Fold Acetoacetyl-CoA reductase.
Amino acid sequence: MTERVALVTGGNGGIGTEICRQLSSGGYRVVTTCVNPEAEGVEAWAAALREEGHDIGWVQCNVADFDACARMATEVEAEFGSVDVLVNVAGITRDAFLHKMDADNWRSVIDVNLNSAFNVTRQFVTGMRERGFGRIVNISSVNGQTGQFGQTNYSAAKAGMHGFTMALAKESAPKGVTVNTVSPGYVRTSMTDAIPDKVREAIIGQIPAGRLGEPQDIARAVAFLVADEAGYINGANIPVNGALFCSF
Ligand code: CAA
């Protein structure tokens, strides 16, 4: 069988990098999107991964922009081939209490974290259906399940992502395409580094595992879901949160 192609949006972020690593180790041809290659230092990022033995491709794309995603899909398919696996990771926070939140911070989080799932997935789902195989994983958050102080925008987007997953799973299952969500808890990345120290320490105190998650913990769940053998797991949400939030 030819190598499967996996596209990871925001694959050069904290969680994304580890997803790229694990998929590359699993034999996938991995490509990531990044918004601003220079500012994000994506060349150096790719070179460091190459040193480790991972040849990760990258394309510039603002996933909040539908037309940019259409252009990105053409570029990816021309250079790397049909996309079999899509992992929607790209996400941002703009935390503020709602009574202090401006409209830009509401809109940018909904655009980057939720509208992107439509903008990117829409480009690849037709091909997956036609080929009778596809794996889509949406990275949500425990805060989409529970709500969080300062995150009406982020919690709404992340909860919306799983609604998107469930509806698309029903549409896609007859065509051999699975769509699942992974909901990380608090993971050691620059995003959690930005939480005020006092608040972060209080959050860690509530995690039964007694620590933040590691990006590897999340990537493991993604690698499991995208496997060819995982075809009957569809429309599911896998929480990876150290028992911070348990539900049935
Ligand atoms: N839990 C409990 N109390 C919290 C809290 C939290 N998560 N966040 C804020 N508070 C409390 C503060 O401790 C403070 O209480 P006191 O007045 O008693 O000291 C009160 O709310 C007001 O907080 P601030 O003084 O910080 O007010 P602010 O307007 O300057 O900022 C805030 C508010 C933006 C919510 C800021 O506190 C903050 O950034 N909190 C962290 C929010 C958070 O948890 N974000 C998650 C980011 S990581 C992520 O999103 C990844 C993921 O998927 C899990």
In short: The two ends are 38 Å apart (CA to CA). Strands lie at 5-9, 29-34, 57-60, 85-88, 134-139, 177-184, 237-240. The chain has ten helices and seven strands.
